[in-house]
Design a protein that fits this description.
The chain has 938 residues and is of the alpha/beta class. It folds into five domains: 211 residues, Nucleotidyltransferase, domain 5 (2-Layer Sandwich), CATH 3.30.420.10; 159 residues, Rossmann fold, CATH 3.40.50.300; 70 residues, no CATH class; 158 residues, no CATH class; 201 residues, P-loop containing nucleotide triphosphate hydrolases (Rossmann fold), CATH 3.40.50.300. Helices cover 49% and strands 14% of the residues. The strands form five sheets. The protein has a seven-stranded parallel sheet with strand order 10-11-9-12-18-8-19, sandwiched between helices.
């Protein structure tokens, strides 16, 4: 029986990572598993012969006292060696555990252990391709594997053994054809997983079970689409009166809290949907904005059998809508909602492209791992959205090759996930999308949007940023050089020579055509290199270095670039594209007779020709097309020339392009713009103006009642130094001291918001050096690995935690309840004056005789400040403190405008020590209140 294989699951804890520097083992655990049952467990502390570093004690909870009576490794070595005989060595990161153990065996005179190994990190990546993290603790939590003491060898080894068993069960749940494909590809992996795949395949073949949950595209098994139940009941009546609304909510929510502003918002939206008119609504935190727009949207869609489209900013907010808010609404109205999530084409997998690329024999390790992940994922995904996959950096390049492309060949509709999403939207009441998709599809004009009666743009202030990103163009030297390298010359082992050999051998394309193409390629690359030399020369002459920064920035209009050179390159590139297309057409003439492996080369060729076409239009847009609504600048780092060259072209204003997009919609549909932050004191229509919305469109401001914020306190620390009058290091020292004292007084659960990545990094380094917060988990954007959402999820797992963030943490992040106790604003969030887009916008305002500070800089900063406060109080039961360390809020005349932008809460201006005492007192009272509530609930 294949199950009788013996597995030795090993975990070790050590004093550090380097045996060469004298690091030693402090604990080992070995779990022996056979027939997928734990047969034996060995665990022991090991005396390392030296003291355990403090950070290792923190990490493992193993102290010098724990190991003082333990024996050294030599005393256990023979028994451990014996345990591993005839076993497959398993660990969560075998590179560390096995190599460390081998080093210890050598040190005590035992031979190197030999045998097969399985790395459960590698295995879990393949079998759980959508997991957020592959750390053992995170996987254990996701798969309900008990792990009480992470970083203790005994608990970790047992959890790893159970993870191995979960992986085995997951393998057996996969369709047979998927296992066959996986086994073929698995010999390139780093650990001996192929045997495990083969064993699972043997069992699968012997069972010969029916696999009705899948449909097949050639040799790919895909999850059969589940037909969602459509609600076909008649219309429902909108609750016009307050009592009707209260009755509706009370029937579905146990702890319903009536919010008049929420009801007002519902009525405004209901009226605008029916009148097909436009409105702006600023709905502060606390009025229940999402339900406030979802309910009237649903009632309108159901009553009129028409669609409403809701657009928001981030993927995270899309998921919140789908997974949290829609189920609430279904409960309130007592019936299902026909809702579809729609994203842009490139978010979806092209199954045909993947099937072609998978046949390649020379995949790298990253590409092999990603191929295996995609094989497993295809047997599970319902919507084919590639963002569901968690791939490594190298794997992302492979993912980009299998994205749905407007030009890619059409495959059977049942496997076109984008088409499926469009079809589903035809029956939907609500279409949920994000701003960038909405902008792209309004430009492309997806016919589905003609059926929409109402547009609700949530997080409307972010529509400005989404429109800027859509209209921007970015050139990077390394990206272009990579693209040239993928084609290569006839003397290189790249795509051009491979394609040429096949085409000439099969007599499909004459050699002369390839010679012409190669000549065109050489000319194109030469002109590209000359263009880059022109940029480097100009940048060295003109560009001003930024203070203490090797980066140089210059606007196009400041440089004397040789425009003819860039036009010549554009023509040369177009010539190469035309010839490459011609060769592709010649090769395809009799497509039926092309062997599958040659089809793959052709697919790759066509993929890169498409990439070159996109790059050509990008080049023309940046270097040739001049537009007064845009600003273009070059960035370069003198330590890496020409590799660091980046050229960015960004719109200075997007109001005109947004007006053009929405002009046809305004004729036939309602448009509702809503956000928690649409206004600033003294400039209520700041965002409306940026969105190009006419003054005649009403702006409604809905503020939660004062008692909603009763749990919030604001403090201004008035004895912080003035940044202008002290050195940066002294200022950072003061900031670090203030942060550590505030964090300790609230016992963590704190956001610290910066405007500069450099200041954030230096502050975090100083805090870590001081060891004053060593008993807290510190997560810092740009310092700790991981995306914004991953940092947030990690932060929420620990009660004693601090999250240091810059721009993207000022908004769009929800941490309800006790998950967040304090927000510290280090500096008022003004844009950096040297930031190029900001600089260009300021210059235009000055040309118009306007004050760039009051018209742009101040309102932008106040909006971010409001958003920063919005992180703190997410419900009327929330309590928290909002601390400002920037003295300008008190010493500058504009400071009062920041404070006026906050809800009606008390603002206390105190020296740091007095503030800390007050916060400790407030925090202790808060703890006491919580205990009383718990006692009462108990």
């Amino acid at each position: 029986m294949v199950e009788s294989q013996k597995y030795a699951i090993v975990d070790i804890e050590t004093t550090g990572h380097s045996q060469a520097n004298g690091d030693r083992m402090i604990q080992i655990a070995i779990v022996i598993m056979k027939d997928w049952c734990i047969k034996k467990t060995f665990t022991s502390f090991i005396h390392p012969g030296k003291s355990i570093p403090l950070f290792i004690q923190d990490l493992t909870n193993i102290t010098d006292i724990d190991v003082q009576d333990a024996l050294p490794f030599e005393a256990h070595a023979d028994y451990i060696y014996e345990l591993l005989q005839d076993a497959v060595f398993v660990a969560h990161n075998t590179d560390f555990d096995l190599s460390f153990l081998q080093g210890e065996f050598r040190r005590v005179g035992l031979p190197t252990w030999s045998g097969k190994k399985i790395d459960t990190v590698e295995l879990a990546k393949i079998l759980f391709p959508s997991s957020l993290s592959y750390k053992l603790g995170d996987l254990a939590a996701e798969l309900n594997i008990p792990l009480n003491n992470a970083h203790r060898a005994d608990d970790d080894a047992k959890a790893c053994a159970l993870l191995l068993k979960e992986c085995w069960e997951e393998l057996l749940s996969l369709p047979q054809v998927t296992l066959e494909q996986m086994h073929k590809k698995s010999f390139r992996l780093k650990s001996n997983i192929s045997q495990l795949f083969f064993d699972a395949l043997q069992i699968k073949r012997s069972r010969a079970a029916k696999e009705d949950d899948f449909v097949y595209y050639n040799k790919l098994a895909l999850k059969k689409p589940v037909k969602s139940e459509r609600d076909v009941q008649g219309g429902i009546e909108y609750p016009l009166t307050t009592s009707e609304k209260v009755g509706l909510f009370k029937g579905a929510m146990e702890q319903f809290e009536e919010r008049p502003e929420q009801f007002e918002m519902m009525d405004i939206i209901w009226g605008n949907l029916n009148d097909k008119s436009e409105v702006l609504i600023e709905a502060s935190t606390g009025i229940g904005k999402t339900i406030g727009y979802l309910l009237p949207a649903i009632f309108y869609a159901k009553q009129n059998k028409r669609k409403v489209c809701i657009s928001t900013y981030t993927t995270h907010l899309l998921e919140q809508l789908l997974n949290n808010e829609i189920p609430k609404i279904e409960k309130i109205i007592g019936r299902p909602i026909n809702v579809t999530l729609l994203k842009g084409k490139r978010n979806y997998v092209d199954v045909g492209l993947f099937e072609q690329l998978m046949k390649s024999q020379d995949l790298s390790y990253d590409e092999t791992l990603t191929t295996l992940q995609v094989l497993v994922w295809l047997s599970k995904t319902q919507n084919g959205d590639l963002s569901e996959l968690n791939c490594s950096g190298g794997g992302q390049l492979f993912i980009d090759k299998i994205r749905k492309n407007p030009e890619s060949a059409q495959h059977k509709q049942s496997f076109d996930y984008y088409d499926r999403a469009i079809q589903e939207s035809r029956d939907a009441d609500l279409i949920i999308t994000n701003h960038s998709m909405l902008l792209a599809d309004l430009v492309r004009h997806e016919p589905i949007f003609d059926e929409i009666d109402g547009w609700i743009i949530d997080e409307a202030h972010q529509f400005v940023q989404a429109a800027e990103q859509r209209d921007q163009a970015v050139f990077t030297f390394t990206n272009w050089k990579y693209l040239f390298g993928q084609i290569g010359l006839s003397s290189d082992p790249e795509l051009f020579s491979t394609f040429q050999k096949i085409a000439i051998k099969k007599q499909r394309v004459p050699l002369k055509s390839f010679q012409q193409l190669e000549k065109a390629f050489i000319q194109m690359v030469e002109l590209f290199d000359r263009s880059m030399q022109d940029i480097v020369r100009q940048m060295k002459e003109w560009a001003q270095p930024i203070k203490s920064n090797p980066k140089r920035i210059a606007f196009f209009h400041e440089l004397n670039l040789d425009r003819d050179l860039y036009v010549d390159f554009s023509k040369a590139m177009q010539h190469w594209i035309d010839l490459a297309d011609e060769i592709s057409m010649l090769f395809k003439k009799d497509i039926e007779q092309i062997a599958p492996e040659h089809k793959l080369i052709l697919e790759q060729w066509d993929f890169f020709v498409r990439e070159y076409k996109m790059k050509a239009s990008e080049w023309d847009e940046i270097f040739i097309g001049l537009d007064e609504d845009f600003t273009t600048w070059i960035e370069m780092d003198k330590r890496n020339i020409p590799g660091s060259i980046r050229v960015l072209k960004k719109p200075i204003t997007i109001s005109r392009s947004i007006e053009q997009l929405f002009y046809p919609l305004r004729e036939r549909a309602a448009i509702i713009w809503t956000s928690g932050t649409l206004t600033v004191p003294n400039n209520e229509r700041f965002i409306a103006k940026q969105l190009g919305i006419e003054k005649s469109v009403p702006l409604k401001m809905l503020q939660a009642p004062k008692h909603y914020y009763k749990g919030a306190k604001a403090f201004v620390v008035n004895d912080m130094p003035d940044i202008q009058s002290v050195s940066q290091s002294d200022y950072i020292e003061s900031v670090a001291l203030a942060i550590t004292q505030i964090v300790r007084s609230t016992e963590g659960r704190c956001f610290v918001l910066f405007t500069s990545q450099d200041m954030l990094r230096k502050t975090v380094e100083l805090i870590q050096e001081s060891e004053l917060l060593d008993d807290y988990m510190i997560f810092a954007q740009g310092v700790t690995n991981g995306s914004r959402m991953r940092l947030l999820k990690s932060f929420q797992k620990f009660s004693h935690s601090v999250l240091f963030g810059t721009n993207s943490f000022w908004e769009g992040v929800d941490v309800p309840g006790d998950g967040l106790s304090s927000v510290i604003v280090v500096r008022l969030p003004f844009s950096a004056p040297e930031e190029p887009t900001f600089k260009a916008k300021s210059a235009i305002l000055q040309q118009q005789g306007k004050n760039a500070f009051s018209e742009l800089s101040l309102p932008e900063a106040i909006l971010r400040f409001k958003q920063g406060f919005g992180r703190l109080i997410r419900s009327s039961k929330d309590k928290g403190i909002f601390v400002v360390l920037d003295r300008r809020i008190e010493t500058k005349s504009y400071g009062i405008e920041f404070l006026r932008a906050l809800p009606q809460i008390s603002v206390n201006k105190l020296p740091l020590q007095d503030m800390v005492l007050e916060v400790e007192h407030w925090y202790n009272n808060k703890d006491e209140e919580r205990k009383q509530v718990d006692k009462h609930d108990g």
